[in-house]
Design a protein that fits this description.
Layout (H helix, E strand, L loop, with lengths): L1 E7 L1 H5 L3 H10 L3 E9 L3 H7 L9 H8 L4 E8 L2 H9 L12 H5 L8 E3 L3 H11 L5
Antiparallel strand pairs: 1-3, 1-4, 2-3
Bound molecules: guanosine-5'-triphosphate (GTP) and magnesium ion (MG).
């Protein structure tokens, strides 16, 4: 089975949506939360995590937003969980995300799109090492 890194972004934490979002993940069959922590991300961690976007116009505001308050970092394990959490989240732009998805139900702003989930097995391995070196 697979493992993925999930972040509930600072907007989700500030708005009291931790339970709502984790509940959706927790209710999926054959998935398990194997690590979970509330933490404020350092510039160093954010630079590693979002390195692929460095130099893009949205990079600086993205990092500032991601450091603006605590996030909830989770490791989720199970059947097709990488594709599965991305499907629960919906597309990056919350206005393009269908109602029923996390971003579609709760978001309006591209930057403040509530959740991060690894987008491939390679990304998951890389990101798990950044956030949970003891688990990875
Ligand atoms: P993550 O799970 O956070 O990685 O989102 P994603 O995989 O759906 O999107 P991507 O990795 O392409 O971009 C990372 C984050 O940068 C997104 O979640 C958005 O918060 C932000 N972002 C991406 N593209 C844009 C953009 O065109 N404009 C702005 N303002 N933010 C963007
Ligand atoms: Mg991404």
């Amino acid at each position: 089975s697979q493992r993925t890194l999930v972040l509930l972004k600072p907007d989700a934490v500030r708005r009291g949506l931790i339970g709502e979002i984790i509940g959706r993940i927790e209710r999926k069959a054959n998935w398990t939360i194997s690590a979970l922590e509330l933490r404020t991300l350092s510039q160093d961690v954010l630079e590693q995590h979002y390195g692929e976007h460095k130099g893009k116009p949205f990079y600086e505001p993205l990092v500032e937003f991601m450091a603006s308050g605590p996030v909830v970092a989770l490791v989720v394990e199970g059947e097709r969980v990488i594709e599965g959490v991305r499907a629960l989240a919906g597309p990056t732009d919350p206005i393009a995300a269908a109602p029923g998805s996390i971003r579609g139900d709760f978001g309006t702003i591209v930057r403040e799109n509530l959740i991060h989930a690894s987008d491939s097995e390679e990304s998951a391995e890389r990101e798990l090492k950044i956030f949970f070196p003891s688990v990875a």
